[in-house]
Design goal:
alpha/beta, binds zinc ion
Length: about 300
């Protein structure tokens, strides 16, 4: 069992049969159970095995907390609620309408993943409006028998929130603290459409203001070196966004730039970790896709064409 603290644990969803790609947080207390980022429907069986291993049955689960609505974090929420309609789903107000009607979300994901949508993610079912609870950040919520502070943490996604449990010092930060496997490179995940480098920096400050003892990353797991980790994240965001800008101001098509970006990133990663670890990073964050998000950011700012 993967225990973070008393009543706090997590499940490795074994996404695409690989360990250490997607982690789901579990909160157990007298007030029932809360699941933080249930992952995609394609991993639902693994999540259920994880619940069983922790002695949790679906009737115990009262809340699903979503850090954001990307498929790898929120995909299974609607499928779960259809089977267990007593569960409420908490999500930032900007993501709420897409959980109620995921048509647009599925359309834009299909443009990227095409005929691999189902194999990768499985179903993305709507969550009925009556099961949705809107968050703005700044509130305190009760879930899993404890109190969480909610902070609005955009940068990776414009509707991203993070959850802090003051009693254990654990902050569930979704993708705001990057991707980090086995203490390796802290990779800023920068997919389209709403990367915002400045907002990301402010979100890191908001997380630091909690003085958390542990950051819990969806990709992947607990990190206790909080300050150096977040400093590396911002350093690396500066580096990757800088590489993207340099490529945008040079010759070539976006496809060529995306490949060049991926190659440079792979070179950086290879100096720091094994080939197997580099491959796990690719599953968590396709590199060409990280370029598109940064390209969109720079173009919105008007500093690249
Ligand atoms: Zn994400």
């Amino acid at each position: 069992m993967n225990t973070l603290s008393h009543g706090l644990s997590w499940v490795d969803l074994q996404f695409r049969g690989r360990p250490q790609v997607i982690a789901t947080g579990l909160v157990q207390g007298h007030g029932g159970v809360a699941i933080i980022d249930p992952g995609p429907t394609s991993c639902l069986e693994t999540l259920e095995l994880g619940l069983q291993a922790n002695g949790i049955r679906w009737p115990d689960v009262r809340h699903i907390l979503l850090t954001h609505i990307h498929l790898d974090h929120a995909g299974a929420a609607g499928t779960i609620v259809r089977e267990h309609p007593h569960i409420n789903v908490l999500v930032h107000e900007r993501g709420l309408k897409h959980m109620a009607d995921p048509t647009k979300l599925i359309e834009s994901a299909t443009r990227i993943y095409r005929d691999r949508m189902d194999e990768l993610w499985g179903e993305f079912a709507p969550v009925p409006k009556r099961n949705l609870v809107s968050l703005t950040g700044g509130e305190r919520i009760e879930a899993g028998g404890r109190t969480f502070d909610v902070a609005y943490t955009p940068g990776h996604a414009s509707h991203h929130v993070s959850f802090f449990d003051g009693s254990s010092g654990v902050a569930f930060v979704g993708d705001t603290a990057g991707v980090c496997i086995n203490g390796g490179f802290v990779l800023p995940p920068t997919p389209p459409p709403d990367i915002d480098v400045e907002a990301w920096g402010q979100s890191v400050d908001r997380i630091l203001a909690w003085s958390p003892a542990t950051l819990f990353l969806t990709h992947f797991g607990p990190v206790t070196t909080v300050r150096p980790h977040l400093a590396s994240l911002l350093d690396n965001l500066k580096t990757t966004s800088g590489i993207a800008l340099e490529l945008l101001n040079g010759p070539g098509t976006d496809e060529e730039r995306g490949s060049a970006f991926a190659e440079r990133l792979r070179r950086v990663l290879r100096t720091q970790m094994t080939e197997a670890e580099v491959a796990t990073y690719v599953v968590a964050a396709a590199y060409e896709y990280l370029f598109s998000g940064l390209a969109r950011y720079w173009r919105k700012k008007g500093v690249a064409t």
